[in-house]
Write a structure and sequence with these properties.
It contains six helices and ten strands. By secondary structure, the chain is an alpha/beta fold. Strand 1, helix 1 and strand 2 form a beta-alpha-beta unit. Helix 1 packs across helix 6 and helix 5 crosses helix 6.
Length: about 210
C-alpha cells in the first residue's frame, strides 16, 4: 500500500527534488506546498505532474492562524508523512503535535551541535573538524526531535560558509530520500529520544561518514 507524502518548501526545494527523483517504492508524492507564491520548486513539481498548493503566510494575522490553515490544507491530502524541505517557518507546538512521528526535517549540522541558523559559519568559527546534516523527527523544541540519521563531512582549513554548505547539501540529497524510504517501508520506530530501524541490515545507514 502506498504512503502519501506531502512536502513543504519555501524556495527551490532541492531536497524535495532529490526525494522525487529517488522514485521511492511505495511513496506517493501527494502534494508540494509552499508558503511563498514565487517558490521555484512549485513549478518544478508541477512540471512533473505533482499537485501543488500555496498558502501565503503573509495573509494571516499570526503564526497560529497560519498553522491551523496549513494543517487543514495538508490533511486534505491524507498524508502519512510530512516532509520539511527548506520550509522557512517556525511551526507552533499544536501543529507539530498534530503530526507527531509523521513530520521530519533536515538540519544542516550534526545535531545537537549548532541548533538554529548560520550553522556553517558557526562550525567554521568553532574549529570543528566534522560538520554535516541531520534528519530528525520534528518536535515543539527547535531542532531537538529524535535523530533518525546523520551524514558527516570534513571541515577544510580553507572552507567558507558557502563551500561547506554546498558539500553538506550533497549529503542531504543522499540522506533525506533514504530516510523517507525507511519510513515508507515501515522500518522506523521511536522509543523516547531513540529512533530504531526494524531491519538490522539498514542500521548501518544511520550515519554516513566521510571517506578521509
Amino acid at each position: 500500500m502506498q504512503k502519501n507524502i506531502v512536502i513543504l518548501i519555501s524556495g527551490r526545494g532541492s531536497n524535495m527534488q532529490s526525494i522525487v527523483n529517488a522514485q521511492i517504492a511505495g511513496a506517493n508524492i501527494a502534494a508540494v506546498i509552499s508558503n511563498r507564491p514565487d517558490a521555484a520548486g512549485l513549478a518544478w513539481a508541477a512540471e512533473r505532474g505533482i499537485r501543488t498548493a500555496v498558502l501565503d503566510h503573509k495573509q494571516f494575522a499570526d503564526r497560529a492562524a497560519f498553522d491551523v490553515a496549513l494543517a487543514k490544507l495538508i490533511d486534505g491530502y491524507t498524508p502519512d508523512l510530512v516532509v520539511l524541505a527548506g520550509f522557512m517557518r517556525i511551526l507552533t507546538a499544536d501543529f507539530v503535535n498534530h503530526y507527531v512521528n509523521r513530520l521530519i526535517n533536515v538540519h544542516p549540522s550534526l545535531l545537537p551541535a549548532f541548533i538554529g541558523v548560520n550553522t556553517h559559519q558557526r562550525a567554521i568559527d568553532e574549529g570543528v573538524k566534522l560538520a554535516g546534516c541531520t534528519v530528525h523527527f520534528v518536535t515543539a523544541e527547535l531542532d531537538s526531535g529524535p535523530i533518525i540519521a546523520q551524514a558527516a563531512v570534513p571541515v577544510m582549513l580553507d572552507d567558507t560558509a558557502e563551500t561547506l554548505a554546498q558539500r553538506i547539501l550533497v549529503q542531504e540529497h543522499q540522506l533525506y530520500p533514504k530516510v523517507v524510504q525507511w519510513f515508507v517501508a515501515g522500518q522506523l520506530s521511536v522509543v523516547g529520544k531513540q529512533v530504531r530501524v526494524t531491519a538490522p541490515a539498514s542500521a548501518a545507514g544511520f550515519l554516513q561518514a566521510p571517506s578521509c
